[in-house]
Amino acid sequence: MKNLLTIVGERIRYLRKNRGLTQEQLGELVGLPQSYMGGIERGEKNISLETLERIVNALNVKPEEVIFRTNDKADFEKDKLIDIISVLLKGRELDEVEIVEKLVKDVLKAFDERDKRSPME
């Protein structure tokens, strides 16, 4: 089983990458050098809660999104995709987000209706 430093480092890496940031860019936002950020992501640095808070704020995520992880690969991939969608929507106007929400609801409704049909149809 991976230790907490490795888990947190991996989560920081994928959240950083989902936001299109380099280690250097995240380091600038947090006030740490790129080499130190690399050590954090590899699980080599034992960071303080203060540093973790700065990273969480720079990534614009909740602390639990960095600390907790699932052991289920499918859930991890699903969370990763949901995070990517969230990042894509953050910079959009409200009316655009509302349109995307309606589209998602329509697609999910179509999936649900497809699943309700019997296999014989």
UniProtKB/TrEMBL annotation:
Query: Sorted alphabetically, which Pfam families does this protein's record hold?
Result: HTH_3 (PF01381)
Entry keyword Kinase: no
Q: Which Gene3D superfamilies match?
A: lambda repressor-like DNA-binding domains
Q: Which InterPro entries match?
A: Cro/C1-type_HTH (IPR001387), Lambda_DNA-bd_dom_sf (IPR010982), TransReg_Diox_bact_type (IPR050807)
Which SMART domains does the record associate with it? Answer: HTH_XRE (SM00530)
Source species, domain of life: Bacteria
Q: Which UniProt keywords apply?
A: DNA-binding
Residues covered by the HTH cro/C1-type domain? 12-66
Supply the PANTHER family for this chain.
DNA-BINDING PHAGE PROTEIN, HTH-TYPE TRANSCRIPTIONAL REGULATOR
Name of the protein this chain belongs to: Transcriptional regulator
Q: Lineage of this protein's species?
A: Bacteria, Bacillati, Bacillota, Bacilli, Bacillales
